[in-house]
Structures are given as C-alpha cells and as structure tokens.
C-alpha cells in the first residue's frame, strides 16, 4: 500500500469504555462501573476478548494515571507474555483544553504520566518499549489544537529534563533520570461537520513538518448522528474517509482511520453477529471501536468470534464519493432530521432523565452530543439520547427520511450501502402506535422495506413507557427503559 505499511503494527480493534451496555459485566459489583473495575475491564478485553488495543478515557471522569502500574502489578503473569506497547496497546483519550476548560490541566497531568509509565514498563520488561505512545484529542477543529499537544509533550514534558537546577551543573535528567519516549503520536478525533469536512487539510498540515512513519485519524459516528441524523453522519464519515485516502496517496504517509461506533443502528450498528456486513460499509477503516454492548450483551463465544473477524480482516480502500452531491443530500437530510428533533426534544429530555447510568462520568461540555445546545436544542449525550428515542417507540434512524426523493434514495444507497439493512434492524423496535412517531417517516420506511418484523414484546414495553409518561407515573420509567434495552441488546 504505502511505504512502511508492512512493518507497522497498528491495532485493528479498540476496546472502549462507553457505557452503552444493558447488562453489567460479570465483574462489576454494582450498576455503575468505576475506575478500579475499568482496570479489570481493560485486562479482560486484552486477555479474554483478544482486543489488541484499549482506549483509556482521561476526559469526563476522575482520571487514573496509574493504569499501567496497576495492570502490570495485578496481572503480572499475563503481561509478562504480552508486552504493552508491542503486542498490546493502551491509548489515552485526553480532554480538549480548548473546549473543556475546567479539565484543561488534567491534560498536562496525563501527558506527564507517560514517562512515568515508561519507567515502570522498563523495569518490568527490561527493555525500552514505550507502553504508551499515542493519545487521542477529541473535538479536534484545527491543526493547532493537534500540534499543541505534540509540541507541549516534546518541549515541556520531555524538554524539561535538560533544565539545570539552581544554576548548578546538574540537570533534571541527572537528578531523576531520562524522560522517554521522546515523542508521542497525536490522533485527532473529528466529531462535527466542519471538522470532518476539513479533516484532510487539518491532518495534512499536521503531518507535513514531522517525520512520521504513519498517522492515525479517529472519526466519530455517534455525535454526528445526534447532530445531523443517521444519514448525515454516514455521509460525513464517507467524505472524511475518502479525504484520508487521498491525503495518504498524496503524502506517501500511511493513514490508518479509526471509526468510533456503537451497536445501535443509529450509532453504527456494529454487533458481533453483524461484522461482515458492517466491514463492507467501511472497507478503508483500519480500526473499529468495540463498545460495551458488543462486549457484554452477547454470548462470549460470539463476541470473541466477532473480534477475531475484525482483527484478521484485510484493510481495504475507502470508496470514492461525489462530495458535492453528498453535501447536497447531507443538507437536505440533516435539515429534515432537525425539524423532527425540534418537535421531539421535550419528550426525549423528559425520558432521558430516567435512562440509567452505567459508568461514573463527569458531564462533558462543548459539543451537542455531550449534553449541550445546538441550534436552540438541548439534548443529552449519544447513548442516553438513543435510549430515550427507542424507549418511546421512535427509532431515531427514521427521523426525517421522508424528505428523500426517489432520486435521493437511489444515490444514497450507492453511498450508504447498508442503509436498508440498518433501517430494517432499527424498525424491529418501532412502535407504530407511538404518539411521538412521525407518520410520514414510518410510511416512507414501509415503502422502502415492504414488510418488516417488529418485536411485539418491545412494542408492549414501549407502550407501557408511553402510558407512564401520559399519566405522569415517572417511577415506572427506569425499569421499562431497561426491559426494552434488554430486548434490543443495547441501551443506546
């Protein structure tokens, strides 16, 4: 493919910590998964599920900067055979200081922890393979936001070792030892329209003055779906993936896209029983995220088989799309979706307060999908939003689709290959009697799909939730939301 491609070990599955599961992991002591249990979860993802990479979330919660020490000390036998940084990978997701001002200095603490983890791993393994050498920057909007992370690490985390103490000859490195690794890789995570459409320019500017073997780029799937609808999110992903392929060809630097997906069709529809179909949609994506519903809401043998298929597949080439036609379709679909959302926002927010939490998290701020304001609407985070929609019998995948003309639909199915399959999967959980369901969108879906199977049991549960809302019996909502989620095999 590109120079150095065969010699670079870039993971193909990334276990994440997003709380989109219904059933809690067997090792959880209660309904909220905390920091210590997430260390065990990382070990479980590596050792039992055979994920090659774990994303360690340092934003939006109390960060644990000692994860490497805990993994190596608690699971010494396993990690003696599997070296972190060589056989397995741990990648830090940082807070973005430009957006999350209250969390800004956590960024500095997290970067400072990388050389300390290096020292621990050096003692454990007896070599100088860095256990952590990549970080993810969420909500990337500019070249400078990515480069600032890279430069701060090089200049201040590593660079300070050359400083002298009290004017004497002794340097900081003489005093407490060298600081390594000398450099880190920064992975931009693009989550909104402008970021995705400008991703080629942003990444191109970032890589042009660095001697890189490769570059990884992370594309969101969940937050764009909330912002612009299911169809809009797919279109943005397809344009960004094409841009990354073109940049890789032009620069000669291998670029390995990561796609952040969940198990709900609205958030990507990646399930362990749906891997082959899903991969055909995104052949040029190198790494896929494996979130909690994938890991914990299916039998473990099916989960392991799904992960094995993802790990063993060959990365292909992202499809070529007509950006101009795609953006015209994007504007049409996202506008119709937003119109529907304006009507549904009050009931979604009402139900969202009763969607159970699964992990200890602080509230994110900044982007629409992180409980925020977008074009006058305030909505919850992606998982909670999706769960609330399904709980009232309204799969969010259908919102606004009746705006598609016959010509639009024909072109959409050329770009979004699994559109009909994803829509069919979503409509399993529709409630045709829901007072919140846009009739035009359901009628359009029926014209596309013809007959489809709806889960009668799920329909009955959502009818109960709708009745509780009508009668203001809010104490019944959480149990109903959970029972419906168990039928779907995902919370949101």
UniProtKB/TrEMBL annotation:
<keyword id="KW-0456">Lyase</keyword>
<dbReference type="GO" id="GO:0006099">
    <property type="term" value="P:tricarboxylic acid cycle"/>
</dbReference>
<comment type="function">
    <text>Catalyzes the irreversible beta-carboxylation of phosphoenolpyruvate (PEP) to form oxaloacetate (OAA), a four-carbon dicarboxylic acid source for the tricarboxylic acid cycle.</text>
</comment>
<dbReference type="Pfam" id="PF14010">
    <property type="entry name" value="PEPcase_2"/>
</dbReference>
<keyword id="KW-0120">Carbon dioxide fixation</keyword>
<comment type="similarity">
    <text>Belongs to the PEPCase type 2 family.</text>
</comment>
<protein>
    <recommendedName>
        <fullName>Phosphoenolpyruvate carboxylase</fullName>
        <ecNumber>4.1.1.31</ecNumber>
    </recommendedName>
</protein>
<comment type="subunit">
    <text>Homotetramer.</text>
</comment>
<keyword id="KW-0460">Magnesium</keyword>
<dbReference type="GO" id="GO:0006107">
    <property type="term" value="P:oxaloacetate metabolic process"/>
</dbReference>
<dbReference type="GO" id="GO:0015977">
    <property type="term" value="P:carbon fixation"/>
</dbReference>
<dbReference type="InterPro" id="IPR007566">
    <property type="entry name" value="PEP_COase_arc-type"/>
</dbReference>
<keyword id="KW-0670">Pyruvate</keyword>
<dbReference type="InterPro" id="IPR015813">
    <property type="entry name" value="Pyrv/PenolPyrv_kinase-like_dom"/>
</dbReference>
<dbReference type="GO" id="GO:0000287">
    <property type="term" value="F:magnesium ion binding"/>
</dbReference>
<dbReference type="GO" id="GO:0008964">
    <property type="term" value="F:phosphoenolpyruvate carboxylase activity"/>
</dbReference>
């Amino acid at each position: 493919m590109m120079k150095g491609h065969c010699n670079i070990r870039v993971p193909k599955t990334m276990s994440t910590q997003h709380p989109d599961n219904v059933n809690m992991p067997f090792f959880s002591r209660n309904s909220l998964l905390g920091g210590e249990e997430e260390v065990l979860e990382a070990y479980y993802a590596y050792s039992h599920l055979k994920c090659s990479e774990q994303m360690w979330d340092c934003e939006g919660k109390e960060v644990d900067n000692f994860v490497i020490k805990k993994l190596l000390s608690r699971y010494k036998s396993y990690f003696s055979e599997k070296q972190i940084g060589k056989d397995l990978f741990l990648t830090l997701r940082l807070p973005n200081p430009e957006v999350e001002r209250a969390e800004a200095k956590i960024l500095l603490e997290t970067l400072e922890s990388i050389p300390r983890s290096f020292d621990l791993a050096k003692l454990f393994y007896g070599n100088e393979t860095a256990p952590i050498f990549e970080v993810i920057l969420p909500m990337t909007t500019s070249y400078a936001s990515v480069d600032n992370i890279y430069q701060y690490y090089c200049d201040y985390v590593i660079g300070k070792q050359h400083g002298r103490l009290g004017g004497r000859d002794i340097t900081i490195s003489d005093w407490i030892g060298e600081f390594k690794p000398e450099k880190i890789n920064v992975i931009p995570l693009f989550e909104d329209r402008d970021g995705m459409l400008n991703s080629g320019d942003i990444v191109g500017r970032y890589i042009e003055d660095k001697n890189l073997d490769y570059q990884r780029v992370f594309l969101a799937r969940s937050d764009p779906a909330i912002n612009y609808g299911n169809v809009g999110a797919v279109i943005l992903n397809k344009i960004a993936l094409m841009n990354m392929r073109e940049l890789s060809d032009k620069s000669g630097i291998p670029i390995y896209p990561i796609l952040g997906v969940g198990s709900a069709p609205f958030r990507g529809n990646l399930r362990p029983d749906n891997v082959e179909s899903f991969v055909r949609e995104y052949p040029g994506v190198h790494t896929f995220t494996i979130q909690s519903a994938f890991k914990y809401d299916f039998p473990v043998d099916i989960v392991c088989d799904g992960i094995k298929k993802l790990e063993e597949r060959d990365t292909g080439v992202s499809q070529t799309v007509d950006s101009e036609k795609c953006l015209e379709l994007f504007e049409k679909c996202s506008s119709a979706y937003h119109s529907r959302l304006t009507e549904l926002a009050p009931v979604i927010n009402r139900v969202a307060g009763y969607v159970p939490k699964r992990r200890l998290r602080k509230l994110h701020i900044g982007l629409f999908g992180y409980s925020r304001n977008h074009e006058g609407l305030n909505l919850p985070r992606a998982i909670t939003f999706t769960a609330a929609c399904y709980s009232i019998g309204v799969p969010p995948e259908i919102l606004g689709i009746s705006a598609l003309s016959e010509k639009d639909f024909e072109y959409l199915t050329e770009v979004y290959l699994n559109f009909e399959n994803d829509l069919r999967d979503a409509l399993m959980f529709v409630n045709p009697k829901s007072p919140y369901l846009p009739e035009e969108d359901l009628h359009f879906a029926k014209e596309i799909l013809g007959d489809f199977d709806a889960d009668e049991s799920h329909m009955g549960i959502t009818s109960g939730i709708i009745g509780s809302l009508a009668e203001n019996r809010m104490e019944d909502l959480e149990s109903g939301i959970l029972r419906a989620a168990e039928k779907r095999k995902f919370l949101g």
